[in-house]
Design brief:
The structure is a homotetramer. The first copy, chain A, is mainly α. Helices cover about 70% and strands about 0% of the residues of chain A. Chain A has a single domain, classed as Glycerol uptake facilitator protein (Up-down Bundle). Chain A has 9 helices and no strands. In chain A, helix 3 packs antiparallel against helix 7 and helix 6 runs antiparallel to helix 7.
């Protein structure tokens, strides 16, 4: 797929990252607002929110992987850049910056779109504090698992399963980690702009984002330990 | 698949659109009535209704795509007609009319069948008003996403995933959009004939249907922006 | 697969039908008892029961199709016999009798096993009356849809999708039909032997079973209408 | 896949069994704690817990099958050893011991990690007694079904479906068996170390583990009865 990916102009790839991350955040935030309005049981709310979020992520990866690689997540972009940094034709620093910028812009736009769809005044901050060491441990575990999964599928030659596998992973991780498994710095920033079920107060951003990068490193380390050596050249883009 | 599709006589294709759209509306309306009778929690009701509706849609697309293309939706029929209008052998105006007529007739029959299965007197109108700009925004987003998905899968050569992908999309869109993601003018008309969980008052039809067509245009525009140019000839039928 | 199927001795095929139908009924009845004990909300009970039942059916079809065809249902056995009655090597009358006998014996054993697993005294009758014309209409629709699905997948050359598609269908049909979608005379008989969530009073058996056979005929008729002519020889066994 | 598996050094395979079993128990225990905190309805709790556990198991089998075979369960390891004991290159006694040791160590670590993620003091015993003949019957049925499924997929040449099929099986078995379908002696030991929704009191361990080994024997017997003879050499590792 690198051939395909490199053949596409950078602006279109950045547009895919922007639209994709925006759609992802709109799905997460929108389904959280809907679920809160409909159910009295927080477990039912999270069931609906986790299933919708997982499906949205899986479909977006399937649709946009051939365009931009469908990173939709700065941790994935940085991981792809690091893994491929000595491979000709891999992401360079300028592309990494543009991808991450597009992801952040998309995440903010997605949160505002979700607010507008529910007739809420967009632009307020979340008041939902998420702090405490055990939540940061949960977020580290969530992101480590995500990176281990993406890199593991790549190492065993099953990267084409990524849409299904990553979607399923997120659905489970939202339940088994204590943090709700944000596992995505761009989406985390976007979610600070909604005062609803899936929001996160701005003061909690630094801890969560740091935990996500730490988890990404741990996941990459685990992948190296279990699968050995470097991944096969040219196959680091989840598709 | 065009060869297969064109080889079939038009009446049989129209019958597939009628039976398919009827079954789809019967599944949506029937599962909504069942869920309302069983659960006290509206979130649980929508979980059951969204899962049943998504499964029904996916199976119907799989079963009827080789017969009629399994549009089951005027927006999809018009989108297929517009995309293929300069391609020999694509849908012509008469076929479009017959498809849409069959979809509308099927949708009405499906709603009446669902009412009869639950021992309710068929033929009443829904009293469930669905209005407000934010709902129309939700419905526009829902339909834009559907068309982007269908056209996107086609552009990347994965149209065979449509049954699974469209089903999954609808399950998520019912949750993340504020409108309940009707995303189908024929089904919307059919759902005006049931005064139950999934109904829509006749007065709300014009707004919803306008939003659906607007969303269809936006989705096609997004697909052109992200995938570029026109789709490959001969591949516009979801299969 | 016919080659494979005919190569196996009849007793082993009958054993597969017995074990398979028994496991299916144990899954249906057992998950219904569990769900009733755990949840106060009948909608949640049916969500769990429908998902477990669908998964069980799909896995059993996948596992036993290469052995016996995995009919697990007299309607499917009779439909396969009728469809293939002029095809050399298809099921003959004696095999049909043995299959149906094994399915009935398995269904009874499965219900008793489920009762025993929950520490209930096996052998009582269900007291859950399921009657009324609208329920019989629901049961007819449920079985018609099942037969249309099985035969349709066969006609379009996708019979290998049967485990997934039939499982998904049952999960949806339990919700959209008013009758709970028994759609299987053997399982219906077995379920008369449990006085629990998924039971059916013996007095309601004749109506349900008649509706199932009527639905089977309607489904076969719809398949002939939509797909035309007879199915391809040698492909009538869902696999 | 044997080629692949045997090519890998034993320590790395043991690491995969340890990490995999640890992650599995962390998913089971963590999602149980989360669900208990969020929902008032025990049915909703088990829905979330069963779906998360099933997804976790499926992804771990997919990721680690090429490394270690992804047994993650002493019953599966012993079954693979017994089935392949006369096949050159199959697991030997030392490997069996190391696998089971790694599984036990991983299971304990996974339970402690889950407790830590939720800010609970790790290291206490479960107080949840699970006893009674009907529960042991349930656990026997659960493990028999698991082994029949794994061996059956192998006999019919569909072992590559194991990640999806085993995950789906566990989701259903948690609901249809009375015991909660532990079906894994290592995970059972790990779950004695959490006083939460998915725990099991140490006093209940012997009964459950005995039932699991009995179920494993029954499942292997059923597979031999239904599929006949011995499985094809070289294909006993689920992948």
């Amino acid at each position: 797929m690198r051939g395909t990916r490199k053949a596409l102009p950078l602006p279109r790839r950045a547009a895919a990252e922007l639209v994709g991350t925006g759609a992802l955040v709109a799905v997460i935030v929108g389904s959280g607002i809907q679920a809160t309005g409909l159910s009295q049981d927080v477990g039912v709310r999270l069931l609906a929110n986790s299933l919708a979020s997982a499906i949205g992520l899986g479909l977006l990866i399937a649709l946009f992987a051939p365009v931009s690689g469908a990173h939709l997540n700065p941790v994935v972009t940085l991981s792809a850049w690091w893994t491929g940094r000595r491979t000709p034709g891999a992401l360079n620093g300028r592309e990494v910056s543009l991808y991450i910028g597009a992801q952040l812009a998309g995440a903010v736009a997605g949160a505002l779109l979700a607010e507008a769809m529910y007739g809420r005044a967009p632009g307020g901050w979340s008041t939902l504090t998420r702090s405490g060491g055990h939540l940061l441990l949960g977020e580290t575990v969530a992101t480590a698992g995500l990176v281990l999964l993406v890199q593991g599928l790549d190492r065993i030659g099953r990267a084409r399963l990524a849409p299904l596998a990553v979607a399923a992973y997120i659905a489970a991780a939202i339940w088994f980690t204590s943090s709700g498994s944000f596992a995505n710095p761009a989406a985390t920033v976007g979610r600070s702009l909604t005062d609803s079920f899936t929001g996160i107060a701005p003061a909690s951003l630094p801890g969560f984002i740091a935990a996500q990068f730490l988890g990404g490193l741990l996941g990459a380390g685990l992948a190296a330990l279990l699968y050995g050596g470097r991944p096969p050249a040219g196959s680091h883009v989840p598709q």
